[in-house]
Amino acid sequence: MLSFLVVLSVHLGTGERPTCLQRCFGPLKTESVRAAMLALSVTAIGGGVLSLPYVCRLCGLIVGLTLLILGYGATLWSFSMIISADMKTGGHYEFKNYCLSCTNTKVLRVFELTTIFYLYGSLVGYQIIISNLIQAAMRMLNVQGHEDYRLYHILAVSVITFPLCLPEGVSKLRYATFITIGAICYTAILLVVQAFSPSMRELYKDAKLELFKLDWGIFNAFGITFFAFTCQAGFYSAIEKLKKRDEGHKTKIAFRSCSINLVFYLIIILSGYLSSYDQTPDIILSRPVPSQFKIPVMIAQILISCGLCIGIPVNFFPLRKAIFNQVLGDTTYSCKRAIITAVIFSVSSCLLVIVLPNINSVLSILGGFGCVVICFVVPMVAYINVLTERTVQVIVSFILCSIVVGMGMGSCISGVYKIIGI
After folding, report:
1. Quick one: residue 277, left, alpha or beta (phi over 0 = left, psi -120 to 50 = alpha)?
2. What does the pLDDT look like over 139-195, one tens digit per residue?
3. What are the φ/ψ torsions at residue 329 (nearest 5 degrees)?
4. Are 353 and 395 in contact (CB under 8 A)?
5. What does the pLDDT look like over 86-144, one tens digit per residue?
6. How far apart are alpha carbons 383 and 221 in whole angstroms?
7. Which of 343, 365, 413 shows the shortest CA–CA distance to 118?
């Protein structure tokens, strides 16, 4: 086997025109399409995918899968608008420059404020997921009164992440994102194994499979699904070192990245929901499992919690920079500013995590508002501004965007409704 791999690695570098095998398994260069594709795909995948099986519990298997496919299609349509407007204005290297060139300063400000809201909400979501995973692990260990320790979990996460939020830049912390990706891939494999396990079927023998369930939960499911596909703002970072930046290569990267995520999400959502049906929790790793799965599940919980703890400062740095720009009009780093923003973030996020223990409500608001504005409204405005002629394509895009905005508003209302408990 080892000799085969050695021979394969030698032959991958030969030949004038790369074969399919060479393109898939050849050396991964930073300026290649594959590198950009994987970078964009990683941008979308995060802790929020653990709530995807819950989508099918909210609205049934068929409706849940339909929402997932619609989210995939809507993301491709969003990228088509971004790429079309981008190419019409000469191409850009930052999403901010794309907004400013294709729209105006008012739209740019809306984008930046929404980005602050989205990043902050995502970080709060990270802490909620970590807290719930720790509680689930304690429940598996039969720790008495594990719910009473929730406040200590939240404070512990803040204490751990606070010093990591003080440096000026991400530096080597950005590579720790792959810990979360690896943990989620491990979780996907674990869910597939559980889906075919007789002991899981026995544990959830009273659970019921629901195919269609149309009620207010569909708005909540919409927010969670669209949140999972959000990666448009990271598009320019992903293609930063790409050699060929023409429309064809950009479209290829967006299509392949979204397709990879779709396949990955289908594995998560099907294997997760089909093993516990209507008893599927909002975080799939927090459900009860048979004894033989407790240790593998706890390993996944620990890995994802560690990855998210490191992911908090990684995502905090762009949040801090955006706040500096909006509040102070200056992104210059100073130790005093860093400490003040880290303290405000740690205290405020702790309070919100205590008040908002339910992750699906947070994802509903983030997906319904943040994702819709950043990924659909802003690209739609840019697309209409650049393509001044009112073609059928522009009209259809405007109608589709209106539908997405309407669903997003419903998702926000649903999330707020659950939070205040009316």
Report:
1. left
2. 888 877 666 677 777 888 888 888 888 887 665 555 666 777 788 889 899 999 999
3. 70, 20
4. no
5. 777 776 667 777 776 776 778 888 888 888 898 888 888 888 888 888 888 888 888 77
6. 28
7. 365
Q: Which of 155, 180, 130, 129 is nearest to 359 (CA)?
A: 129
* Listed residue (187, 357, 358) closest to 289, CA to CA: 187
Other CB atoms closer than 10 Å to residue 208's CB: what's the count? 8
Q: Is 314 helix (H, G, I), strand (E, B) or coil?
A: helix
What are phi and psi for residue 230, nearest 5 degrees? -70, 115
> Judging by beta carbons within 10 Å of its beta carbon (0-12, 13-18, 19+), is residue 327 exposed, middle or buried?
exposed
Q: What is the helix, strand, coil percentage profile of the chain, to 5?
A: 80, 0, 20
Q: What is the pTM of this model?
A: 0.85
- Residue recorded with tokens 């299509």: 255
- 274, 195 in Cβ contact below 8 A? yes
